[in-house]
Amino acid sequence: MSSFRHEPTSGLFDEGRGNAGLTPDGAAWLASAGAYPRSTLALWREHPDAPVVLPCGSAFDVVSAPAVFGRRMLDRLWEDGPGSGPVAVFRGRTLLFAAPGTAQRLPSLLEWEEFGSGDGGRTAAVPPLLCHGTGDAVTVPPPVGDPGARHPLGSRWLVAPDTRHPWLPGPEALIWAAVRVAREAVRISIFPPADQDAKVYDVSRRR
User: Fold this and answer.
1) What HEC string does the chain produce?
2) Which of 67, 94, 172, 182 has the fewest beta carbons under 10 Å from its own?
């Protein structure tokens, strides 16, 4: 059974032991988002600890949520939903990699939930979700990370890509998770549990 662990593992990228489970196939998928994937892979071979800026809209879109809310969405997707695609953190936000087109559709779905649900707006407690699609770019964590350190920009993988064709959630799955987390936030304070970094996500549960 394959699994992802939150904490990155040390090792050389060429040996397939990268940041939080990132594999050569996963790195190849990430690089495919750019115009020059071979140049990106060459950069990582020479500087495996270097974050890279990649465009959205072709291989993936990205939904950026405040760190704690995003981690709660990630937990909800794995505990009660279909699982997640790759997920990273950067500068205090959680980056959920999603299917291309999600960035265009998610805002309208959120608006419909807020004004068309008939129960006072189920998304009232959803914080701003930044949707990055065609024409946007995001910084992705490096392939290799030190398990005892954090990158100065706070860039690291929570769930790293390990295949050339990763499953990616669409807007429906993400709004489902966001609404449920928002409902929970109304009832309880949302603070990350002490052992949150130790969670393991079983990729065999993806639907």
Assistant:
1) CCEEECCCCCCCHHHCCCHHHCCHHHHHHHHCCCCCHHHHHHHHHHCCCCCEEEECCCCCEEEEEEHHHHHHHHHHHHHHCCCCCCEEEECCEEEEEECCCHHHHHHHHHHHHHHHCCCCCCCCCCCCCEEECCCCEEEECCCCCCCCCCCCCCCEEEECCCCCCCCCCCHHHHHHHHHHHHHHHHHCCCCCCCCHHHCEEEHHHCC
2) 172
CB 83 within 8 A of CB 77: yes
- Rounded to whole angstroms, the Cα distance separating 202 from 120 reads 36
Distance CA 178, CA 201 (A): 19
Looking at the predicted structure, is the pLDDT value of residue 143 above 60?
yes
Q: Model confidence over 124-134: pLDDT tens digits? A: 678 989 999 99
What single letter denotes the amino acid at residue 122?
R
Angstrom distance (rounded) from CA 37 to CA 180:
37
128: its two tokens: 């701003």
Residue type, 103: A
Residues in the chain, overall count: 207
Q: How far apart are CA 192 and CA 172, in angstroms?
A: 25
**Cβ(118)–Cβ(151) below 8 Å:** no
This prediction has a pTM of: 0.78
Q: How far is Cα 69 from Cα 191, in angstroms, rounded to an integer? A: 9
